[in-house]
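Encoded backbone
================
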Amino acid sequence: MQLGAHPLAYPLVRGIGRIGPVVRVPRVGVVVSEAAPAREVLTDTESFTKTGPGSPADLWTPVVGPSVLLNMEGDDHARLRRKLSGLFTPRFVEQLCERVAAEPMAALRAELAAGRAVDLVPVVRDLAGAVICELVGLRADRADFARAFAAATAVTSMVRLGRSRLTPAQVARGRKALSELTGPAAVAFAHGGPESVPGRMRELGLSEQEALGAVAAFVLTGTETLVSYVPRLIALAHDTGWLPRLVAEPGRADDVVSEALRFTVPSPVMLRSVAAERTIGGVRVRPGDRVVIATISAAKGLGGFDPDRPHPPAVQRLWFGAGPHFCLGMPLAGAEIRAVLDAVLAAGGAAVVDRKVARRVLIPAYRSLVVRRA
C-alpha cells in the first residue's frame, strides 16, 4: 500500500528512521522517526510551530486564508479551539451520523446479506461526501455527495510529501474548488438552524470567517484519510482473521479500530517549523529549520498488527496529533468508521474477494476493495 502511493518517498522515510530516531537530512529537514521525540515536538508549540518556514501554513494559507486551525498558533488558535470545543459532542455526532449514514449503511447491509459483492471504496466515498454536505449545510443527494467529495479532493490531491508550496495555478484551482463548499456554508451560517454544522458554529459564537475556516479545515483533513482508512481497516481485519472474530466478539471493535489506525497511520508525515533553538533527540535545531515528523515510522515502531497489545503513552493516538493541535474532528471520524464496520459485522462479516491499490496518491489507499458476505 505504502509503496503504491509513494514508491520513492516511503522507502526514503523508513530508511531514515533506521539510521536514527532524529536525523538531519539535507534539503528535507530534521526527520523525527520515534514516538517520544515526535510527541515532544507536537506538544511544544512555542518552539515548533505550524506557521513558520516549511510549515503547513506555507502550503494551506494561500488556498484557505490565514485562520483555519491548520495554520494558526498561540492565543488566536486557542481562542478558536475553545469556541469549537462544543461542536462535535457525542450527541451531535450521533445525530449527524444517523442522518447521513442510516440509508447507505442499510443498503450495504442488504447487499452483503443478499450475497452480492460490494466495492467498499465508493461506499465510503459516498459516506464522506454526505458528511461534507452536512458540514457545509447542504441537504443533498448522491450526485451532490460526489461533487462535494470531488471539490474537497481537488485541493488535497495537489499535495505531495516533497512539496512545501503550491504553484500559483494550483492555488487558483484550490480556491475555486474550495469555494464550491464554502459558498453553501456561508448561506447555512447565515440562515441555517442549530441542527446544521454552520448554524451550530454560529450559536457557539464563531464569526462567519471562523466558521468557514473551520469547515475548510475539517473537510481538507478528514476526507481522504477516512476514505483511505476504512477499506484498509476491513482488509486488515480480514487478512489477520479478526473480522470473523469481531462478529462473535463485537466488544473488541474499538481495539481493532485503534490498532488499525496505529498500523496504517492516516497522517504518515507532519510538518513543523522551528521557532526557538532546541535539541531534539540530541540534534540541535534553530529557528527556520523544518521538522518532518515521520508519524509512519513512529507508529509502526511498535511492531506488527496486534489489537491485544496496548499502546504505550508516547504512541497513543499520535496519528491524530498531540497537544493543542490534536484533531478536533476525531469523534466524527470515529463515528463514520464504526458506521461502516458495524454494517459489515451486522451482515455476518465479509471476505475480501478482490482488491486494487491506488497508485501515486497522497494517502495510501485502495482503488477498489470488493467484499462479499463470508
In short: The domain at 1-373 is CATH 1.10.630.10 (Cytochrome p450). The mean pLDDT is 90.
